[in-house]
Amino acid sequence: MQAVPMVDLKAQYALIKSEIDNGIQEVMDSMAFINGPAVKAFQTELSHYLGGAEVIACANGTDALQIAMMALGLQPGDEVITANFTYVATAEVIALLQLKPVLVDVDPHTFNIDVAAVEKAITPRTKAIVPVHLFGQCADMAPLLALAEKHQLYVIEDTAQAIGADYTFPDGRVAKAGTMGTIGCTSFFPSKNLGCYGDGGAIFTRDAVLANKIRMIANHGQSVQYYHDEVGVNSRLDSIQAAILRAKLPHLDRYNASRAAAAAYYTEAFNKVSWLTTPRLAANSTHVFHQYTLQLGEGVDREAFRAHLTALGIPCMIYYPVPLHEQKAYAQHGHYPVTEALCKSVVSLPMHSELGEETLARIVEGVRAF
Q: 223 — phi, psi (to 5°)?
């Protein structure tokens, strides 16, 4: 029996092949591979999708985080608070810039950064907070932004897994993930909800002055060629990747809706399975399901579960098996009971925009047969 793909980019491509191929051909015809018309058009179109936030494309999501922190003028020794339960890139750029990553625990239901833990971690050296919109839904931004305002802190949203998610504030205002803090950062890694066919990333901000500084830093610190006013980096989204993203962007909401429908199918099937906990939905955020992540009950052998599914041709992944505070490069003392429990119990099932009911039924049957 054919194996189920964890992410089915071939099927997604087949549905919009002509749009992608035409976009790539336009770039080839123009030979404008660096900062060409496709990049500028994509930035404009994504800005419109995000409600007018300025968009600066860059080489990848990790660069986006680094450039954001450089643009804010953070200095060696400054403390930056972020979630312990996340991919390493979030903490990596903090350490790379000789800032101090301060890890805090996450909410046991949404897996996003615990606002109360953030408040306890603030010191006179704290300069920024990096909430990660994990697995596809927004961190609780209203109290987080209020906390940041109270302590005069920057907020850098890591929205690599949640592009397209909507957050609703207590007053009814709705904002897209990545557009609420000082700066938002995303990745266009191929498996993302909006992914290219290589590396890519972008930075968002509603501050025009800050946007200009970010553009300079991403382009060797220059706004006029050969005049370098900032210490910068070389981080560009190439035109072919921009053309691919332009073709995909009009389909993003459909992709996210398809993922949500697949997630609903899973949840309905697993809700009454005593040894599984299905994803909890935040009350104030939509969920775009970059991942569909289950928690296995106490005493369930995760490796045996994975082996069982693998034997049936059903892949599954663990995001993430080791908390950041236990990684050699970022080791910290502290008490992180939620993160530690999640790292021992989570498992993610196949999730993408082309999951059909036949495939979903096969996955569900395989899981329930364990």
A: -110, -25
